[in-house]
Amino acid sequence: MNNALPHSRVSRGWLVFLLIAVVGLFYVKWFPYYNRAFVAASQHSIGKSILMGTSATAPAPSWQAALDYALAYGKAIWQAMVLGLLLGSAVQALIPPRWVARALGEHNFGSVVNGGLMSLPGMMCTCCAAPVVAGLRAREAAPGAAIAFWLGNTVLNPAALVFMGFVLGWQWTGLRLILGALMVFGLGYAVNRMVAPEQAAKSRETLAKLVDEDVPGTAFARWLKILGRMSVRLIPEYIVLVLLLGAARAWLFPHIGPDIGNSALWIVAFAIAGMLFVIPTAGEVPIIQAMLSLGMAAGPAGALLMTLPPVSLPSLAMLGRSFSTKVLTFVAVSVVGLGIVAGALAAMLF
Prior knowledge:
The protein has 350 residues and is mostly helical. 74% of the residues lie in helices and 0% in strands. Helix 5 (126-138) packs antiparallel against helix 6 (143-155).
């Protein structure tokens, strides 16, 4: 039985993982967002809405609409997606399973807190975080901890919160922060509570095998193999779903104007549409800004504030093998529910 991997092998694995994480996040996220914060503060804008630009109506469903959105979205997120795939595969190949288990393996609230806090430096969109979540689940991270990590990347994104304050107003940041913390830690805790005792026992057995097994080949060869497998499995379905959503923009988001009021019907409709649709990191900020400038009421905007970033149809599909259908359905429905709450609060307060 192999109770411990050679120290030099573990050290090299950790060094490579940390190098990818720090350099990658600095290049893709931290430095660009640092500069964009000054733009947001001085111009009260971070760009045009990726959903429909300055128009009040999304393009009619067509192949061109699908392709245009997929290209714009891909240009915005491709670097983060590459980084997500690198990190998601590296978690499985370069980090010993016992380290993942120590931080995120317990089916308790402590692992949920750890998952939520570990997500803060990532600041990835829901789809780019999905490969990392898949990697954590492959190493038997508790489902609630992995959910907290997944949701925390978007709704507790420090950069997005800062952009939101400068562009939309700090009251929107406060609403997002309060309901975002409830979403990340509340849903994570609830998902862990959904795990049956026999499922938890099976997870511990699987983890014990991962810790003890002596996988043939070098860690870096396994890393490349896992990276290739993840890319082949996740990217094609991801591209197809992004194309479909790009084409369906006009159905999910009708003509935007003063007629989109604070009625319960509009709040619920936009909460559902926001949960299904896919956007790049912080893309909800210019989308909501554009919609408010066209006269849409605060209620539907509040719903989008909480449902556009955390999950999407593509990210749910990408994690279909990492969580049960029951868990993913619960998360999607709960996100919609919190979006409705946010819409109701925004309608009353803003």
